[in-house]
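Customer escalation, tier 2.

The customer says the design service returned an amino acid string that "doesn't look like it belongs to this structure." They asked us to rerun it and document both sides in this ticket. The original structure tokens are below, unchanged.
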């Protein structure tokens, strides 16, 4: 299973904007939660 950024995700490695970094972090948290749920369903 892979957890990848959504299509259209355009944050640069050098981004210093706290707002954009926070948004990207939240996207990652949500993607991780979705992956855990999908993995749990597959393992049953």
């Amino acid at each position: 299973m892979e957890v990848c950024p959504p299509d259209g995700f355009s944050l640069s490695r050098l981004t210093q904007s706290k707002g954009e970094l926070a948004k990207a972090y939240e996207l990652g948290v949500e993607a991780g939660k979705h992956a855990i749920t999908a993995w749990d369903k597959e393992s049953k």
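Tier 2 assessment: The sequence is consistent with the input. The first helix runs from residue 18 to 42. The mean pLDDT is 90. Sent an explanation to the customer and offered a walkthrough call.
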